[in-house]
């Protein structure tokens, strides 16, 4: 996850982290170590850890990047890969989300609308109407 340094609300040792250059990795490691110090900036990574129970918070790697060029958006890159098969190759997916955001905002401006539309879509599933938490 990358955003302008003003968009972070960091705690503990990350709060003292400084961006010496225009693009600085503030954290790279297990999501479990990131969530307590960036609770408002690690929700997508925490959701990935929950969605991958075989990996969990210790197996999913989170990267938090301060990038001074990102004055109007938050960027979330998600990379997934499976185990290597008999040919030595593995399944892989890379997706990038660019969420418009006001300068210094922790939440992108499209987040609330996207969340609300997702809830509405869940409530209209013909096979299982309603919201189901697993």
From TrEMBL:
GO function terms (MF aspect): aspartate dehydrogenase [NAD(P)+] activity
Biological process per Gene Ontology, one example term: NAD+ biosynthetic process
Domain of life assignment: Eukaryota
Boundaries of every Aspartate dehydrogenase domain copy: 24-112
InterPro entries in the record: Asp_DH
Gene3D superfamilies, alphabetized: Dihydrodipicolinate Reductase, domain 2
A Pfam family: Asp_DH_C
PANTHER family to which the protein is assigned, alphabetical: ASPARTATE DEHYDROGENASE DOMAIN-CONTAINING PROTEIN, L-ASPARTATE DEHYDROGENASE-RELATED
Protein name per its UniProtKB record: Aspartate dehydrogenase domain containing
């Amino acid at each position: 996850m990358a955003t302008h340094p003003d968009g972070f609300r960091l705690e503990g040792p990350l709060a003292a982290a400084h961006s010496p250059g225009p693009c600085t990795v503030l954290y790279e490691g297990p999501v479990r170590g990131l969530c307590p110090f960036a609770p408002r900036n690690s929700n997508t990574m925490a959701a990935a850890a929950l969605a991958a129970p075989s990996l969990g918070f210790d197996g999913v790697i989170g990267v938090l990047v301060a990038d001074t060029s990102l004055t109007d958006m938050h960027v979330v890159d998600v990379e997934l890969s499976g185990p290597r098969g008999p040919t030595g190759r593995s399944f892989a997916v890379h997706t990038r989300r660019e969420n418009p955001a006001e300068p210094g905002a922790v939440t992108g401006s499209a987040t609330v609308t996207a969340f609300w539309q997702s809830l509405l879509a869940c409530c209209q599933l013909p096979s299982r109407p309603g919201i189901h938490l697993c």
